[in-house]
Write a structure and sequence with these properties.
There is one protein chain. It is built from 13 helices and 18 strands. With 419 residues, the chain is of the alpha/beta class. Helix 5 packs across helix 6. The longest helix is centred in the first third of the chain and has 26 residues. The protein is globular.
Amino acid sequence: MEQGVRDREMRRTRMSQRGKSRKRKRKNGRNPIPFLVALLAVGVIGIAGHHLVSEGMEASRQSGQVQGQENGQNEANGADEVNGTNGEIAGNFGTETGSGTGTKNGNSDVTENLNVSDASTQDTQSVSNDQAELITEGEKPESERDTTPLLGGAELRMLQSQTKGQMMSFLLKTKSGKLIVVDGGRWDDGDYLMEQIRKEGGHVSAWFLTHAHTDHVGALLKLLTNEADGEDTGITIDHIYYNFASVEWYQKHELGDLGTAMSILQQLSALPAGVCQTVKRGDEIEVDDVMIQVMNDRYEPEEVGERDGNDASVAYRMVVNGKSILFLGDLQKKGGAHLLEQAGGGLKSDMVQMAHHGQNGVEENVYEAIQPSICLWPTPQWLWDNEGGSYTTPETKAWVKKLNVSRNYCTKDGDQVIR
């Protein structure tokens, strides 16, 4: 009897000890179940992200808002967002990142991959502050600014970003009042751009697009999407000129802005016949007394590089009443070399839009071929100041200084107007 009681007590003790051991294992994180569940969740998210990309064009049409962010600045904390698979997406649309993770977010911005810089694989040349220092027209007292008319009655406006991100938007009004737009900026710049167009009568004779990144085509995408959804924006467009790659090329070379590329291609394809015009090297388009020349064919490297969509930019040279303005878009090293090879001495221009917002763009020899007297910088303050020290803006400033450029206009100072 007593032996049976002792046996039962020993069994209880062993069971109690095994229970405590299991609890300790769970506390020490050695239970595999949560880990397996987490792995399963990651796999599901990756599959969902891939599915969202493959269905992206229809999803973007339904949502009416798609915006990928390239080389901008995180509006929440001011940190630079650049390169690779980062993106901000407005509306019900998914984009695939390098890890295969899909992201979508109702009507707010989604930012990821903030720790990679466009300049991370490019050594920044050491440039002293004295060498790199440039004084922009906006920094000068009004009494010291050169207001000599240049464009013979025409007016060029370089618009400031409506966010903290970099973008590019130009509005050219001819001598007789016709409007030409170059790029236009981000989705969030759309309302301001449309307001400026409506102030000038609401009719755009020609809209030129350099490449399919959101900080260049987002504003037009917003306008076209609003119109497709039945809104009367009060704006009409005669022709849109561009040369974009196929969706398949963007899927391989430009996942970071794949959603934007798919959406702008879809919206353009839905426009009436004759509105969209695909351009090629050597084309000349006349708008009023402005002659626009297409300087290069789109560069499409077969191998996957860093932000290939930038090097796919088309450059336009506009002659306005005897003065020439060269728009380089976001051309980088390879695209710049391609442009130099195709255009050569024909690049010489009075004014140049600084490639890729003034950093990590074309090399010095391209600017030497252009020999500008005026530089146009679509560059926010943080990029002009090289915040964080990871950009090549100081290097580009040093090149400009060597060229003895007489005037520098920069959007960090607000909208810039040249007459």
